[in-house]
Amino acid sequence: MAIPIFQTGINHNINRNTVSYDVWIEWFPAFTQDFSSIGIRAEEGNSPVLLSDFHAVTSTGVSAGSTSLSGATLINMEQNERILTSASISGSTVTVRYTGPSTA
Q1: Backbone φ and ψ of 70, nearest 5°
Q2: Helix, strand or coil for residue 70?
Q3: pLDDT at 67
Q4: Which of 7, 70, 86, 103 could form a disulfide with 53 if both were Cys (CB 3.0 to 4.6 A apart)?
Q5: Could you read off the pLDDT of 19-69 as tens digits, one per residue?
Q6: CA–CA separation, 93 vs 13, rounded Å?
Q7: 56 assigned to some structural domain
């Protein structure tokens, strides 16, 4: 039995000097879902990009094929030894909350 893995990411693409970005989520072994409605732009400089306070993102009706989510391993985002998110599962609902410093 496969253990479900929740992954998120940002793809960056360069095509003839045009840069574009795509946000995605995936409950492995299920298929990846793209979110084209989320706007992302490049920042200048070589410093790490700060994660913006997104409050909470909740996905309902989540499934990973026939595999139960109850055994999933949740991995929170961390930067410089500070945890920035808190992920939770309740039935078929997955919530990721921002817990990092205020970005206002």
Answers
A1: -60, -25
A2: helix
A3: 76
A4: 103
A5: 777 788 887 777 788 776 666 766 656 566 677 788 888 888 887 777 778
A6: 31
A7: yes
**Has residue 103 been placed in a domain?**
no
Please indicate, yes or no, if residue 13 is contained in any of the structural domains.
Answer: yes
Is 44 domain-assigned?
no
E strand residue ranges, 17-69: 18-28, 32-35, 56-59
Domain that holds residue 22: 5-38+51-98
Helices (H) and strands (E) in the chain, counts: 0, 8
Instruction: Copy the structure tokens of residue 14.
Output: 């360069």
pLDDT of 86:
94
99 contacts 51 by C-beta, under 8 angstroms? no
Domain count, the chain: 1
3-state DSSP assignment of residue 11: strand
Q: Determine contact, residues 99/84, Cβ cutoff 8 Å.
A: yes
Q: Is the peptide bond before 29 cis (omega within 30 degrees of 0)?
A: yes
Which pTM does this prediction carry?
Answer: 0.58
